[in-house]
Design brief:
elongated
């Protein structure tokens, strides 16, 4: 498959799927201050994963692309942190957390692979 745009990248598609998942899940969360704070943070961090992948794709250099991917990897880790907090408060189930975790691990492996290719 020919890559014409960042939306053709499987890694971006997986990150966008994770964003769609959290948007759907947050709709079911309680409407209190703690859930609002966690929701705000997790939606920002998960949204930043695909945003940084897209930004990196549009960069003019391999070095800048790798820098954006490193930021995406950091946001990916931050997202798991917030999802752990959501699970701890029963906003998401263990099963749902596991889905996020495995998707996050796939994204992280793909990010690392792309960074390694850019640096070699």
């Amino acid at each position: 498959m020919e890559i014409k745009d960042f939306t053709d990248l499987i890694i971006w598609q997986k990150a966008d799927l994770m964003f769609d998942m959290i948007v759907d899940d947050i709709k079911k969360w309680p409407k209190d201050k703690v859930s609002w704070i966690i929701a705000d943070q997790v939606i920002r961090s998960i949204g930043s994963i695909s945003a940084n992948i897209a930004e990196g794709y549009g960069c003019g250099s391999k070095k800048e692309y790798a820098r954006c991917l490193i930021i995406a990897r950091k946001e990916n880790c931050e997202s798991i942190n917030w999802l752990l907090k959501a699970k701890k408060r029963n906003f998401i189930t263990e099963k749902r957390f596991t889905e996020y975790y495995f998707l996050s691990e796939e994204i992280k492996k793909m990010i690392n692979s792309i960074i390694n290719k850019l640096r070699s």
